[in-house]
């Protein structure tokens, strides 16, 4: 059984290249209405996926 982890989002975390790419793709989408309409939801899922792979994965899943 997994130990309960209380979410702690106040800690600074290093940004992986995957997270950096996801943030850049999301920001580009937000500046283009056509791309935002077509890809916006996928860009957010991409960002969440990268976050769940990171150091705060257990805290994010517990939230």
The number of helical runs is 3
Q: What is the overall silhouette?
A: elongated
Name the poorly predicted regions.
none
- Counting copies of identical and different chains, the oligomeric state is single chain
Q: Report Rg.
A: 14 Å
* Total separate domains: 1
Task: Please trace the helix and strand order, writing H or E for each element.
Answer: HHH
DSSP strand tally: 0
* Through-space gap between termini: 17 Å
Q: Please identify the structural class as seen in this structure.
A: mainly alpha
How much β-strand is present in the residues?
under 5%
Mind sketching the topology for me?
Elements lengths: L16 H14 L2 H21 L3 H6 L1
Helix pairs in contact: 1-2
Question: What does this protein look like?
Answer:
The protein has 63 residues and is mainly alpha-helical. The chain has one domain. Helices cover 65% and strands 0% of the residues. It contains three helices and no strands. It has helices spanning 17-30, 33-53, 57-62. The protein is elongated. The model has no long low-confidence stretch (mean pLDDT 83).
């Amino acid at each position: 059984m997994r130990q309960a982890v209380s979410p702690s989002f106040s800690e600074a975390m290093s940004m992986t290249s995957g997270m950096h790419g996801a943030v850049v793709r999301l920001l580009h989408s937000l500046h283009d209405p056509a791309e935002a309409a077509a890809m916006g939801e996928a860009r957010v899922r991409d960002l969440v996926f990268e976050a769940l792979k990171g150091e705060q994965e257990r805290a994010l899943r517990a939230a």
